[in-house]
Amino acid sequence: MSCSGYTCSKHCLCALNILYVMVSLLMIGIAAWGKWFGLVSSFQVVGGIIAVGVFLFFVAGAGLIGAMKHHQVLLFFYMIVLFMVFIVQFSVSSACLAINREQQDQLLEVGWNNSRSTQRDVEKSLNCCGFRQLEPNRTCDAACFPNHSCLPCAEKIQEHAGEVLRFVGGIGLFFSFTEILGVWLTYHYRNQKDPRANPSAFL
Fold it and tell me: Does the pTM exceed 0.85?
């Protein structure tokens, strides 16, 4: 069975959006699982991940419906939104890969000071207290706190921060290239005619 340009573009676009739907559901599921089992207590972090997952789900759903029905308006808005997502994601991924150690330290300290719940999560999971030193008259959820043997969390966070940023940046770059592929496929697919709907157009 032969595969025309129209059919291949349609199937590739549908497959790409099915992948995005699966990724969005995975993001929502992981965030909900982490919150349910108490792995992450920060509502802002969980809410942010779920919001991104829901946004991706609706964008992928619009792209999937537009591809299946060859709906020009849906495909146009899908292409514009996907291109904007590509720009943001490519920029953030490049920043993650280009950030140096001093900038990492500054961002980590800002993030630490902005959320008390995140502090408790990190202290409990990494068994440390305080960012650079434990503040006076402050309790700590780490197992080492009763023995007064805790190290500052900054050192332990910095051990993994570089690896995490490189991993996130690499994954982000990979998906950003799939997004620009989706933009190209959508543009190409919108300008093609359905041979089953109007065969005479190709005569």
Answer: no
